[in-house]
Amino acid sequence: MIDTPRARLAQGLALAIPALLLGGAYISQYGFDLYPCEMCWWQRWPHFAALGLALLSTVIEPRKLWVALAALAIIASGAIGGFHAGVEYGWWEGITGCATTAVADGADALDAILNAPMIRCDTAPWDLFGISLAGWNFLISVGAGLTILALLMKRA
């Protein structure tokens, strides 16, 4: 049972962090045309898993276990984001052939494919203070995941 204030905070963070980061990803994609590359998608999958695990923690025992697993999934997304940021900054090589095309919904499929821009994994389409979206995912996800785990480990 989630019975301490720290454990409840950990559970709340495990629900909020992936929801907010996924929300931001979809807003940037559909609101600002920042289409995801393949590695961007890789970062989303652990957040979906974390959200599901955190939701399980609200109904199934042992609740702290589900929150801890959600925290590990959040950290996994951050680790992928750190690798992706390193590729964007040119610190190391990425996965060969890592690119995807943006598809226009509702248009002719062939025209959408032929006219879609190529989204490369080694180019940051946007940054804030010199940190790309993948870099921000690394910083936020690893920090939040470790915070959640620390909150779960403390007594009282």
UniProtKB/TrEMBL annotation:
Gene Ontology terms for molecular function: protein-disulfide reductase activity
Primary residence: membrane
Record has Protease as a keyword: no
GO biological process terms on file: protein folding
Record keywords, A-Z: Membrane, Transmembrane, Transmembrane helix
Gene Ontology CC terms: membrane
Membrane topology per record: Multi-pass membrane protein
Transmembrane parts of this sequence: 12-32, 44-60, 67-87, 133-153
UniProt-annotated location(s): Membrane
InterPro entries: DiS_bond_form_DsbB/BdbC, DsbB-like_sf, Uncharacterised_DsbB
The keyword Transferase belongs to this UniProt entry's keyword annotation: no
Pfam families the UniProt entry points to: DsbB (PF02600)
Record SUPFAM superfamilies: DsbB-like (SSF158442)
The protein's name: Disulfide bond formation protein B
